[in-house]
Design goal:
Distance between the termini: 65 Å
Number of helices: 8
Largest sheet: 3 strands, parallel
Strand order of the largest sheet: 1-3-8
Radius of gyration: 21 Å
Structural class: alpha/beta
Order of helices and strands: EEHEEHEEEHHEEHEHEHH
């Protein structure tokens, strides 16, 4: 079983002007959707291209050498203990995934950064649902072998700007703290030159339903609250201590000057 990524699909056909009313121009199907990457100068596509190349190599070995394989294409799996917090248990200059990035800002009392205004969409899947799908692949090799499967929840598709709004409201509800804010920044300023992003990632569920009888039941709100509560429990005190230490360090030169 090889874990790939939904990023192998690249950009949707609808993002290049094809009719968005036709679902084949935006719904990502494992067996029929073309994989469209940006230009070589848009360096972000290196990851998606590398993952796609590995998938093609695996398929080739399956065809030529009889390799038994299953490929998993995760769609933004989220859940408790999913990611790190920069400066606490990861590099201070690191870029965690969007949920951890937003949680860090909320717990630090800083604005949530929306790259290019948070215009793109993402589809989130609760990790327990995803694990159930993988277990079905393991338990039913006769039905999973030779296939690539989308493992995501199309019901949990949301624009990143709306995700920020959801998390701001939920964090305030959980902690009782005032609602946070957002700030918009260009992709080039945030990530550097060569940034380009996939616009929409909505998985077709036809194949995984047919082969494994799998449908993800967990809503975005339920998955998000479970994930956020663990982030708060694990990191809020640590971040508060880091902020206190930073404030004390900043105040020390002023005291010496007096």
């Amino acid at each position: 079983i090889h874990f790939s990524t939904c990023e192998v699909y690249g950009r949707t056909l609808s993002s290049y002007g094809l009719d968005a009313k036709d679902e084949k121009n935006w719904l990502l199907d494992e067996e029929t959707t073309p994989m469209i990457m940006g230009p070589v100068s848009a360096q972000r596509w290196c990851y998606a291209c590398a993952k796609q190349l590995v998938e093609r190599l695996i398929f080739a070995h399956g065809t030529e050498n009889g390799l038994k394989f299953t490929i998993v294409r995760p769609y933004n799996w989220i859940g408790p203990r999913m990611d790190y917090i920069p400066g606490v248990d990861g590099k201070d200059d690191g870029q965690p995934r969007v949920l951890a990035s937003f949680m860090t800002a909320l717990m630090k009392g800083e604005p949530l950064v929306l790259v290019n205004g948070g215009e793109v969409f993402r589809t989130f899947c609760f990790v327990e649902d995803a694990c159930d799908a993988v277990m079905r692949m393991i338990e039913h090799p006769d039905k999973s072998s030779g296939h690539a499967f989308n493992v995501g929840n199309p019901n949990n598709n949301i624009q990143i700007s709306k995700l920020a709004e959801l998390m701001i409201n939920m964090y305030s509800k959980i902690t009782g703290k005032p609602k946070g804010t957002t700030v918009s920044i260009s992709g080039e300023e945030y990530y550097g030159k060569g940034y380009e992003d996939s616009d929409l990632r909505i998985p077709s569920m036809k194949l995984v339903k047919k082969q494994l009888d799998w449908t993800p039941p967990t809503s975005l709100e339920t998955a998000m609250e479970a994930t956020m509560r663990v982030f708060i429990e694990k990191y809020s005190d640590k971040l508060a201590n880091l902020k206190r230490s930073a404030d004390e360090a900043a105040a020390a030169p002023a005291k010496k000057a007096k």
